[in-house]
What does this fold into?
Amino acid sequence: MPACATADRPPLTPFVLALILLAALVHAGWNLVAKTTGGDLRFALLTAAAVALVWSPAGAWVTWREAGGYGPLQWGLIVASGAVHVLYYGALLTGYRRGDLSVVYPLARGTGPLITAMVATTWLGERLGPHGWAGVAGIVAGIVLLAGGPALWQRLRHGQAADPRLRAGLRWGALTGLFIAGYSVVDGYAVKHAGVSPIAVDYLGNLVRLPLTLALLWAWPRRGPMDLAGCLRRWWRPALLIGALSPVSYVLVLYAATLAPLSQVAPAREVSMLVAAFLGGQLLGERDRGWRLLGAACIGLGVVVLATA
It folds into this structure.
């Protein structure tokens, strides 16, 4: 990966760092709410509708100011962002229903840089170097700890089947991480190189998510009726809360990315993994809290080392 001189990089100022830390706390908080609902794609549709409603004044203002100057590149990035976010949120909610927050969330947030490193060194001819591979090793070690640490090793040695919730958490967490890597690249390029503002990326991308989520709901196999009215009665409060909070966390990150290098902003954001692992253990009573907190810390450290390679 081509190196960039440190002197050429704008500094990660205390103001930018404060933005990132605030975004991380808000992000971990709304993920806790999403986990406790047990929602599915219908909940994703409700949250997208809530975002469109709550943030309509800001979205309309930004659209009026900017959208007239967008070309095929900008609109293509917005549509791509919306599509990848639909897949991301669907995978995240599935993981939360079938696995534990303290496994799915840190794994999802930690695998994006790992996937990027593997693709770049395998197919793009880039060199990571010892420093970078040390970061990869930290991520892998963290994943193993999240999976159960020494207890996982004992199960493997004795040929015992893994916990179904653990398997589901690992599978869906990794898939969510793949989609996170995808939208991070698309949205980062949009705000840094294509001239799309962070609010426009999030709000207009959300408008794309609404029909795509609805179409996916109709196409998805289901056992009973869709019952959107019943889901609205059951989930309108958490959907409204997430609709109000989730754009705050993401717009703060995108805005920070316009002020500092993305290679610094993205790793700093992963402090939210530690918050989520703590919340999963303390508030939701998930097992192996100590190992999972240590695993989240290893992933966070590995991401930071990888980003500075």
